[in-house]
Design goal:
The protein is of the alpha/beta class and 356 residues long. It is built from eleven helices and 16 strands. The chain has an eight-stranded parallel sheet. A four-stranded antiparallel sheet has the order 5-6-14-11. The mean pLDDT is 93.
């Protein structure tokens, strides 16, 4: 007998602080949300409840020949950094998109993903706040625009993702607490790395609890956590046949770089474990504002079954990226409708095993 679907479906309305999603399915920051055309396609899909821009910096990020993606049956691996476009460009594109399509699409919100040094993050958030002021956003307690601070890209040379460093994370959180105090209507999220042992989760939650307001009814400066980004230091080798024999095959890197960030189906079990750990820690916190922090689950979501697994592990909304790159904009409709879903897909290909 199959179990009932989780209560949250792709069409379930979701509220995260002042952002109101008409549905629980969205894209996450990725190269597939780089241009105004990309953003327009995701925003105008009737199956998305919100959209996220590609992560940007105030001055942009260099586009290099080494930035590439390799797709596989089990997911993808990429060597991308952040967007070559500036935060200011995304602010302008988001404003144009909302003015042109916002009313028709039910005013679904936009999450502007940004990163950089503490000072660059401050500048980026202030640019987003400038747009919110122009649109009188948040005046009635509802916002159209939020920000996500990406502290987790594994592909930046000589730079440890801040979410792996409690000291760095605490520094960013202090800045974000100040920014949120100046405008409590601002919805701020963090995009986290995939963690692989218990102490990493405890360290992140300790940093988050350290900036929790003493008033149990006050909102936490951080409204949501997006979990997970790609898993770094992974190598993908492909065989290039130089003859008809196996011995004639040569192995070469699938990417221009020796290492990349793993994403897609292969990352899915780790992402589910991260979401479950974070959900458990948040719900057990002695701080009421921390317990209200929402989770956006991401990592290998390519079917309705994967969506349901994320919800079962404790998320309030579900995001995807690799599936958008592979299947195109139609992926949102396929997940919402559960197209082509069969029993093998429902359990992800895993079967229960007996104890040995």
């Amino acid at each position: 007998m199959s179990s009932p679907r989780p209560a949250i479906t792709p069409s379930t309305p979701v509220q995260i602080h002042t952002l109101h999603f008409p549905g629980a399915l969205l894209n996450t920051a990725s190269p597939y949300a780089t241009t105004p055309t990309d953003l327009h396609a995701v925003y105008t899909s009737p199956y998305t409840g919100a959209i996220t821009t590609r992560t940007s910096m105030p001055s942009g990020f260099p586009a290099l020949p080494s930035h590439a993606v390799a797709f596989h049956a089990w997911g993808s691996s990429n060597s991308f950094g952040f967007s070559p476009h500036t935060t200011g460009e995304y602010v302008r594109w988001v404003e144009e998109l909302l003015r042109r399509e916002g009313k028709r699409m039910g005013w679904k919100p936009v999450i502007v993903s940004v990163t950089g040094s503490e000072q660059e993050v401050r500048e980026a958030v202030e640019e987003v706040q400038g747009l919110r002021r122009r649109l009188d956003d948040g005046r009635d307690g509802r916002s159209l625009i939020g920000v996500e601070i990406n502290l987790s890209c594994p592909n930046i040379p000589n730079h440890l993702p801040p979410s792996y460093s409690p000291a760095s994370l605490a520094y960013y959180l202090s800045t974000l607490r100040t920014l949120h105090a100046s405008d409590p209507s601002l919805t701020i999220g963090l995009k986290l790395s995939p963690f692989v042992y218990a102490d990493q989760f405890a360290a992140v939650l300790s940093c988050i609890e350290a900036v929790s307001p003493s008033d149990p009814d006050a909102p936490h400066p951080i409204s949501f956590l997006t979990s997970t980004n790609t898993l770094g230091c992974t190598a993908v080798l492909i065989a290039t046949a130089s003859s008809a024999s196996v011995e004639g095959c040569q192995l070469t890197d699938a990417l221009p770089t020796p290492y990349g960030g793993l994403a897609g189906h292969a990352l899915h079990p780790l992402s589910l474990g991260n979401v479950r750990h974070l959900s458990t820690h948040l719900s057990a916190s002695p701080h009421a504002p921390v317990r209200r922090i929402a989770l956006i689950g991401a990592g290998g979501v390519d079917s309705r079954a994967a969506f349901d697994r994320m919800v079962a592990c404790g998320v309030r909304a579900v995001g995807l990226a690799t599936a958008l790159g592979v299947q195109g904009i139609e992926v949102f409709g396929r997940i919402a409708r559960g197209d082509g879903e069969q029993e093998q897909e429902r359990d992800g290909g895993w079967k229960r095993t007996a104890r040995l």
